Amino acid sequence: MNVDRFSLPLSRPLATASGTIDERTGFVVRYDHRGETGVGEATPLPGWTESVADCESALDRASEAASTGGHTGALLALDAGEVPAARHGFATALLDADARADGVPLYRWFDSERRCERVPVNATVGDSPPAETAGAVERAAESGFECCKVKVGSRSVADDVTRLRAVRDRVGDGVTLRADANGAWSREEARRAFELFADLGVAYVEQPLPADDLTGHAALRGGPVGVALDESLVDRRVDAVLKTDAADVLILKPMVLGGPGNAHTLAMRARERGVEPVVTTTVDAVVARLAALHVAAAIPNVSPCGLATGDRLAADLAADPSRVVDGEMAVPQDTGLGVDSSEVRTDA
């Protein structure tokens, strides 16, 4: 097991609940398994996963465990609840090697019957005044996106309604609209927003209430606007969320869930409960983006996913074999992730 640290500058600052960041720091993990060298990525994100320092320590422990106990020992040393990014890095490298050894792209390692060349993706539009918001959605639609997620919650509900109405006036009903409140609303604000958003054809609101308010989220369900949970999955098991019927949609981030295998398992479990999975990244480098793309590709009839995040990086670990065309991302059909470990460089 080999671990190399990297830091990649962002093309523009990223605002998170833990502050604004201007670079993504993580680790490239390589692991030899079944005659192949698999590659993975562990890129912690403050507020979502462990710290960079804890990730590095966990990978060091896993490397020691792998030297005596092989991949089983390494996985046992990496708790998905405590160090999800570190586990993601090793688990991805292991799966990449397995899929290469079996001669299939990773998504077909999850489901050998699947054939998927493209995954629909959404564009993300930040908080801005009505005309600017409408213009951003219009540009996304003109470039081929049929689904846009608009950030809400920083303004009053009335102001966000005005913004979304401006979008509908500009682009009509041909674009699916989603909203992301990042847990900003009270129960009363959320109830009012859902009533008003219904007339604007908003498909769902992501994290309308604080992460720990599963009861409040469950009460919002049942109307024309769906409830999607994202931050709520950080500190609690998906099974607990499903048990409380708190969501119509689960936003699954493989980096937060401990690896692409965990994310795929949870996606299919959600489907069995009638809850739709949407796969997204945590603004990762190309290795983790590809892992998330393969998870999405392994889900039949998956909804547009939040995978078109490569442009948030000013530099990357390797050339990206996937491209977004007309609102869809091409799925590599080469074995494994679709990028050779020797092409992944940490000195970008």
TrEMBL record:
Q: Which UniProt keywords apply?
A: Lyase, Magnesium, Menaquinone biosynthesis, Metal-binding
The signal peptide, as residue positions, is: none
What is the originating organism of this protein?
Haloarcula salina
- PROSITE patterns listed in its UniProt record: MR_MLE_2
Domain Mandelate racemase/muconate lactonizing enzyme C-terminal as annotated: residue spans:
130-224
The top EC class is: lyase
Q: Enumerate the InterPro entries for this protein.
A: Enolase-like_C_sf, Enolase-like_N, Enolase_C-like, Mandel_Rmase/mucon_lact_enz_CS, Mandelate_racemase_C, OSB_synthase_MenC1, OSBS_N
Q: Which Gene3D superfamilies is this protein grouped with?
A: Enolase-like C-terminal domain (3.20.20.120), Enolase-like, N-terminal domain (3.30.390.10)
Q: Where is the active site?
A: K151 (proton donor), K253 (proton acceptor)
According to UniProt, the reaction catalysed is: (1R,6R)-6-hydroxy-2-succinyl-cyclohexa-2,4-diene-1-carboxylate = 2-succinylbenzoate + H2O
Offer an example of a GO molecular function term for this protein. magnesium ion binding
Question: Which biological pathway?
Answer: Quinol/quinone metabolism; 1,4-dihydroxy-2-naphthoate biosynthesis; 1,4-dihydroxy-2-naphthoate from chorismate: step 4/7; Quinol/quinone metabolism; menaquinone biosynthesis
Which is a GO BP term held by this UniProt record?
A: amino acid catabolic process
Provide the E.C. number(s) assigned to this enzyme. Answer: 4.2.1.113
The protein's matches in CDD domains, at most eight in alphabetical order, are given as: OSBS
Per its record, how is this protein called by name?
Answer: o-succinylbenzoate synthase
Q: Which family does it belong to?
A: Belongs to the mandelate racemase/muconate lactonizing enzyme family. MenC type 1 subfamily.
